[in-house]
Amino acid sequence: MKKLNTYQLNKVKKNLIKFFNLASNEDLKNGKNWYIEAYKICQDIAQKYNTNTFIAASVISALSPRNKWHQNIKDAYTVFDAVKNNIEPENVKVCTFHSNKFKAFQLAKSEIQITDSSLKTYNFVNNIALLSKKHVTVDIWHLRACFDKIIQIDKAKIGRIAYGQIKDITLQVSEKLGISGYELQAIVWLSVQKNYKL
Known about the structure:
Elements: H1 6-22, H2 25-48, H3 53-62, H4 69-84, H5 98-108, H6 119-130, H7 140-147, H8 160-177, H9 181-195
Helix pairs in contact: 1-8, 1-9, 2-3, 2-6, 2-9, 3-4, 3-5, 3-6, 4-5, 7-9, 8-9
């Protein structure tokens, strides 16, 4: 998926509004709070381990693949604790892929950093680290909402232009609704999981 045409862009807008309107009051509340709670966790990590929220969020992001959120956070604390105590990654267990564990250690040590070469990750880190209103996390569930169809994870690759288009539409819709882009994305994330009809 490289670039969306006008028809596709209009459909994306309608579908985002559709899933927002299908959100329950609980979804609205939880969606508005999700990134704020994630930001508070990043603040806590930054304070405890003498780092900053961007590095904390980067480590969380690196540990996220195939990892439940609660465990993801637990693993992030484990990594920072290991780095603080000079424990090597080989001696630490986390619930994600080995390559991601090693990447998390490198990020915690500031040996590497998350850049916009990986748009989804970069936007996610900016959302949870800074509560940035300029970034939108376009993940598999956001794509499913945008196109109102089940998209398999291995088919969820979109190009930089399409990502930018979806991000811009999400920000436009969120502005009309009087909420931030990350709040809309979180609300839609909850809504689409409950309301998508196979």
